[in-house]
Amino acid sequence: MQPLAAVDIGCVICADKGCRVCKGSGWLEVLGCGMVHPKVFDNVAIDNEPFTGFVFGMEVERPAMLRYGIDDIRLFFENDLRFLEQF
Q1: How big is the CA angle at 67 (ends 66 and 70), to the nearest 5 degrees?
Q2: How many whole angstroms separate alpha carbon 70 and alpha carbon 18?
Q3: Which of 43, 50, 66, 83 has the greatest CB tally within 10 Å of its CB?
């Protein structure tokens, strides 16, 4: 994406000092948006001259980590149904 914007909140786990949940930054990104890079269109065989794209989304993993006391975001992306079915 290019350019981008985000809404961050202070990490409530480490009180903004830096931990694994906030990747050491003291901040958690919860909303993000930006323009789609032209190469993304190229990679899916769409002519990037007449088209532009804007993306936005809400990250649900980090708020879920805070709510349920999960300390490793990778658990959400391993597709282990024993973990995922808890939510």
Answers
A1: 55
A2: 16
A3: 66
pLDDT digits (tens, 9 = 90+) for 18-67: 887 788 899 888 888 999 988 999 999 999 899 888 888 888 887 888 88
What domain count does the chain have?
1
Q: Quick check: helix, strand or coil at residue 21?
A: coil
Residue 64, φ and ψ in degrees, nearest 5: -65, -35
pTM: 0.56
Containing domain of residue 46, as a range?
Answer: 2-84
Structure-token pair, residue 84 = 């995922």
Element (H, E) at 61: helix 61-68
